[in-house]
Structures are given as C-alpha cells and as structure tokens.
Amino acid sequence: xxxxxQISRRAVLSLFAFVIAASAGARIIFGGxxxxxxxxxxxRPVDTTTSWAFFTxxxxxxxxxxxxxLIPTDELGIGGRDAGCAVFIDRQLAGAYxxxxxxxxxxxxxxxxxxxxxxxxxxxxxRYRLGLAALDxxxxxxxxxxxxxSLAPAEQDALxxxxxxxxxxxxxxxxxxxxxxxxxNTREGYFADPLYGGNRDMAGWxxxxxxxxxxDYRDMIGRRGEDLGLVPVSIYGQGLx
Length: 241
Known about the structure:
The chain is mainly α. The chain is built from seven helices and no strands.
C-alpha cells in the first residue's frame, strides 16, 4: 500500500468518524428533530386580551368595518372582523413590521414600476395613520358626515370599490395604495397562524382545508387533490387533542 493510499484511507476514516460524532451531537442538541422548542427561539403569541396596541378607537372601528367588507361572513366562513384580522393588523403595526424595520427608508424615493417595490420614506405604521385619517376626512365630508364604520354596508362596498380602482380622491394620500395595503394585510390576518392574532379558531385554514403547521407531511405528499380529513394545528399545537 502506497503512502498516498494510506493518507486517503485515513482521511476517509476520520471523516466517517466525524460524521458519526456530529450526528450523535445533533441528536443530543436537537432531540432527534430539526427544531426544538427548548433550544430555538419560536415566535411568541401576541396578547389578544388587551385593547388596541396601535390603532386609536376611531381607526380601530374603521379597520374592523373594512376587513369585514373585504372578507364578509357567508356560508363559507366567518368574516374578517370575527376572524381577528383587525387585531392582527394592529399588532403588526405596533411591532417591527409597522416600523418597517427591514426596509430602506432614507430615500430618495421616486415613483417606479410595481416590480420595483414600494418607494417610501415613511414607515408602514405612519402610512396607515395618514391613510386612515385621509379616509376618515373623506367620509365626513360626504353628505351626512358619517364615519366609515357608520355607513351602510352597500355604501362601504361602493367606497372601497372606488378606492380599489383609484377613482376615490383622498386628500393627501393615494386611495388605491391604502386599499392595496389593507387588502394585503387582511388576507394575511385571515390565513396566518393564530398566534399572530388573526385566523381565530383557525377559521381560515378550516375553510380551505389547510392542515396547518404539522411537523411531518411525508406520508401525504402523494395524495394530491384529496381531502386528508386533518384538523388544523397551529405552531403552538392548538388543535391537537
């Protein structure tokens, strides 16, 4: 046996021993699973028992009315208000998302194409505050001077439709941008894990048949288009019996 072959064999054996040791160490550290609640930093459930963390009472009433028109209660499931979408948005705006913690806001900001992403120098929370204030002024300047939450459902739908197509003129704010932001966050609240404040009782997941944050789906990968009959499970195990 030549020296080069001996070195090669030693290297292979050393690597094999290292892999075994590393695998054993991984089982000790992670308990045989890729993730472990004790060692990792799981997301913390938001407190839904307290009052609004970001919204004022006027803003909260407006957003609750809006999310309930964007996702109304029907034969398929509960509406956005009962699902906690307004609570989800409120808690997000009170945290890092609302402060746009991972966004570049120093400018300059110039109008671009939709593919270039948002071009703003103020945070999402600031934009919500400005946009909702502009919508409130718009509503109170209409005949009757009612707040959005006091309008009839048909009137709310008509106004939201004008915001969506850009024909509603809000003073000092882009109405379509406000609508798009509200729609995006309402959808997120309806289908996010319940620990974030929305998707109450996992209503959104139950409606579409999503089984939730289960640990392992390997036994079901090939069962396409089939109702698995699984009860949704949240990140923290809600739904397990």
